[in-house]
Amino acid sequence: MQIGPREIITPFRPIPLEVPEGMKPNEFFNSAENLKDLVNNNGLLDNPEHLLLYRKALGHSTEFDTSIIYNTSQCILNPLGRPVRRTQLPVSVKNTWNRMNQILLEYMLERYPDPEQHLLLAGEASLDATWPLTAPGVPSIRMLHNHFISFDMQALRKAQLADSNNPNLTDGGQHSLFQSYMHDIYQEFFAGLDLKLLQVADTGTAKIDLTGYPQGLPSWEIIEGIDSIKQVRFWIEYDQILKGFLDFYRTFFSQVSTRNAPLPSDVFFPEQVENTLLHNNEFLKIAKMVRERCIADARYANSIRWQPAFKQIIYRNEAGQLIITISQNSIGNAITELLGVVVKRVPDEKAYAKIEPALLERLFEVRRRLVTADLGTPIATPYWNKE
Q1: Distinct helix (H) and strand (E) counts, the chain
Q2: Domains in the chain: how many in total?
Q3: Quick check: 340 and 211 in contact, CB under 8 A?
Q4: Around Cβ 226, how many Cβ atoms within 10 Å?
Q5: Total Cβ atoms within 10 A of residue 266
């Protein structure tokens, strides 16, 4: 069987919302007004911490597909003041967030125990408005959310090969600035993290055999699988990976922006940044290369994401290992594309109606587990009850 990224077709029921005149669709779908629709028509469960479990109306998969969003749209009106990543969450919210993530992952592993039959992933993508602010469609709302997705492996095997040159495929080996030019420095910086439940995974182990993705990204195996995920220590280490990435990203682009810039004020590992980055001639050489190109090439400069943009996911490979990876989200779009799965969504109400009952029953099942664990209250919508 040919190895390569796959493109699958996912039907959805058209959303009965009118975009106000003068707004672009993605601007409206990221608005507080649309978030009300998300709760009222697709909400499954919420809690006092403002964590909302919801059905993905424009989904990635018809097998299992849901998200948790930190819905601060009604209590933090400044879009730039909202938490957009795990490291910005209040402690009480993070504790609840971690428990919800653990229960959803445990459910997915129980519901889909055979790694040869189902590809599982869970993870977050940066929602910062990090692309040029003058570009059309920059989100007017930014809120942290996680994806929980299962794909049928047989369907992926039968799917057509995706165009490997599709720029939305986040291929760390080809597209990422960090991986292309600073691979060894990047790996050395991550090697300084204090990890006990995670171990570095080699490139072959980390890849999905069918797609060959992810490519070239730093990856870690969760040594004891779901037993590790149930431990508080695991989520501390999961945060360590994100913090390390953020330090590397901020330090690099501060040097691109300003020659010989001082240590960023908000780094998590100042000694590590000082020792492995700010005195590394290769690191500073690449920063100089990018800075000079920004000065000479207006289009290139306008494409730079000066603030951190990333995808961090937990996924299961065909061998049944649970892997963590994090990607510089400079090119890629959907989080599934990090694993070489391109989703083509098509409006097809009849096709969606056929799969909807089974999909919803699985979502209701995981909702019941969250309620039992005192992690939220069920939401009733025009399409389903609280029970």
Answers
A1: 13, 13
A2: 1
A3: yes
A4: 15
A5: 10
Question: How many whole angstroms from its chain centre is CA 359?
Answer: 22
Q: Which of 6, 102, 173, 175 is nearest to 370 (CA)?
A: 102
**For residues 171 and 162, what is the distance between their CA atoms, to the nearest angstrom?**
13
Position 41 in a domain: yes
Dmax (CA) for the chain in angstroms is 61
What is the C-alpha separation between 48 and 63, in angstroms, rounded?
29
pLDDT in tens, 164-181: 887 778 666 656 788 888
| Alpha helix (H) residue ranges in the chain | 25-29, 32-42, 91-111, 153-158, 177-181, 183-191, 203-206, 226-229, 232-257, 270-276, 281-296, 298-303, 349-372
State the Cα–Cα distance between residues 62 and 352, nearest whole angstrom: 8
Residue with tokens 């810039």: 261
Lowest mean pLDDT among 25-34, 127-136, 206-215, 301-310: 127-136
Rounded CA gap, 73 and 150, in Å? Answer: 28
Say what the alpha-carbon torsion angle 186, 188, 194, 198 is, to the nearest 10 degrees. 70
Domain extent at residue 13: 6-378
Q: Are strands 310-316 and 198-200 parallel, antiparallel or unpaired?
A: unpaired
Question: What confidence tens digit (pLDDT) does each residue in 87-121 have?
Answer: 999 999 999 999 999 999 999 999 999 999 999 99
CA atoms within a 13 Å half-sphere pointing along the CA-CB vector of 332: 34
N residues, the chain: 387
Do the domain assignments include residue 387? no
Task: Answer yes or no: is 374 within a domain.
Answer: yes
- Residues 197, 231: Cα–Cα separation, whole Å: 9
